[in-house]
Design goal:
mainly alpha, Four Helix Bundle (Hemerythrin (Met), subunit A), globular
């Protein structure tokens, strides 16, 4: 006899409200960076779990805070806005995930014999949550992305017991900066209709895509030329792939019906850049 375990619809909807695609992408990046930095297996699990919890917290907080705006513009893809998940449930889940992130960061840092390192993870979480409120509608909207993405590789490298090179922190910050501009583009019209005026909105869709592409190309260049020693052949190949992915994402992203592909292009470039870091041994 075969038994099937099915998730309750409310649980599935709650997971959908956590922004699973970008959350999963960031978590995979954290896991790959841990491998590339030589983090010990148990600590690598801790790093990955810490980042996963932070992504759940930020995603649920975002949908809980934005529910009235999302409902106003008819966002049927948002379970909290449609009423499939209550704001209270999403808010409670965000608090629980944030607490788990804080606890996991402490345990991971302690296990790596660097107890103060958890502060880097806490800074990343606090910065990300500050985007949901109050910075989303201001010209400082890219700041939380830049700080949180800079904290991610720093946390991984510190847990591994290495010093953090300046070029790696800068690359992480620029990746977050570029991701923000691309991520906003698909929802730009809905955001402006509900009073959200972050920096990308002030530049318009084409301007935001151009800034995102420029930032991500700068990230790839930093990862090729930042580490000591001459650039390797793999770096040039990875740079070429990143350029192609960005061009495709920007080209498709110009079409309003397909602008979500611009952010997927960002995810693709991020994974290419992580592969570049690992293959080049720059994190060791």
């Amino acid at each position: 006899m075969r038994f099937q375990v099915r998730a309750r619809p409310s649980t599935v909807r709650l997971l959908q409200a956590s922004h699973p695609l970008p959350g999963a992408a960031v978590t995979v990046v954290a896991a790959l960076l841990s491998i590339g930095a030589g983090v010990r297996p148990l600590a690598a699990v801790g790093v990955t779990a810490t980042i996963a919890a932070s992504q759940f917290a930020v995603g649920w907080a975002n949908d809980a805070i934005d529910a009235p705006r999302d409902a106003r513009v008819g966002r049927s893809d948002k379970p909290v806005a449609t009423g499939a998940v209550t704001r209270r449930a999403a808010g409670t889940a965000a608090v629980v995930a944030a607490a788990a992130c804080l606890a996991l960061a402490v345990a991971t840092a302690a296990g790596a014999d660097r107890p103060w390192v958890f502060l880097v993870a806490w800074l990343g979480l606090g910065s990300a949550l500050s985007y949901d409120w109050p910075l989303k509608s201001t010209v400082l909207s890219p700041l939380p992305y830049a700080v949180s993405f800079a904290c991610l590789p720093a946390f991984v490298v510190l847990v591994a017991g290495h010093s953090v090179p300046a070029w790696l922190v800068l690359a992480g910050g620029l990746l977050g900066f570029g991701a923000h501009f691309a991520n906003v583009v698909p929802d730009m019209a809905d955001d402006e209709a509900t009073g959200v005026r972050g920096l990308p909105h002030r530049l318009g869709a084409d301007g935001a895509l151009a800034v995102s592409a420029g930032a991500l190309l700068a990230v790839t260049a930093l990862l090729i030329f930042g580490p000591p020693g001459p650039p390797r052949a793999f770096g040039a190949a990875a740079g070429a792939v990143a350029v192609v992915v960005l061009l495709l994402g920007a080209f498709v992203g110009r079409r309003s019906a397909a602008r979500h592909w611009a952010f997927r292009g960002v995810i693709g470039v991020a994974l290419v850049d992580v592969a570049l870091l690992i293959a080049g041994g720059a994190l060791q």
